[in-house]
User: Fold this.
Amino acid sequence: MSIECPTPVHEDEVVLLGHGAGGRLTAELLDTLVLPAFGGSTGPLEDAALLPGYRELVISTDSFVVSPLFFPGGDIGSLAVHGTVNDLAMRGASPLALSVSLIVEEGLPLAELRAVVESLGKAAQDVGVPVVTGDTKVVDRGAADRLFINTTGVGRRHGALHPSAALARPGDAVLLSGPIGLHGTTVLSTREGLGFESDIASDSRPLHRLVEVLAPLGASVHVLRDPTRGGLAAALNEIARDSAVAVEIAESAIPVPAPVAAACDLLGLDPLVVANEGCMVAFIDAVAAEAALAALRSVPEGAQAVRIGEVLPTEAGGRVTVRTLVGARRIVDMPLGEQLPRIC
Assistant:
């Protein structure tokens, strides 16, 4: 008689904060639970999707649960606009319209709600995108954490600019539009009272103008991605996976502000996995790389743009490596979950 171990029972499985972090736990939740309920995925999971039947129209939706509501460099209102505009931009689109829905916890001071919605309205006006519809719900005390915001955006793509996470090619240059780690370390420091917020501020800002200046390069622009949850590490791993390529970056080329580096050293964090809200990674045909850098540097949002790596021509796909300061190479894994929850 043989004795076999029983199949594990997972009746006690629950949703974890890491399931919403943009890393491996998020991918697992989507692949095993969410996407099958919607009929499965037919391609890479992009920041925004093409509207069926409308080739040049793009739609994106996002929810914002950042804690605290206000932080140096921004707040949940402006962040909601910037995040949605940027998701449209990563598919090569300029924003046409936004919807905004508020979920407000009973007891939130009206002064704070007013400050958030005024900031949201100003951010939308600065971008030049109208808020055309929305909704407001109020829930019982304790049923939400003060205020959540959901936004949906519709945009129109620029001519021949059709980037996708599945279009990276061997030989592509990997460009980064600016410093990393500012948003995540600012929000965490403000939330926990660590003191770094006096030296740093979130990079939250719209990126659509970066995409506009890249538009003349057309098909030479293969991939655009804003490294938000999971940081640069998650963004590069998603692109390497969806394009079946190997990506290598140089640690010496990655701009990490000194206060961010200090905060990460103290907290044991890797700047590559810290969330950003105002920078973009771009995979550009090598022939057009210098023109792309010049275009990015021509606008304030891309003034610090740099080339940080390349897509390798021969290595197995789906892998990201970094050349360290001492000349070694290490694998950059997809983050498991979110080391910094409630960042956006």
In short: The first helix runs from residue 24 to 37.
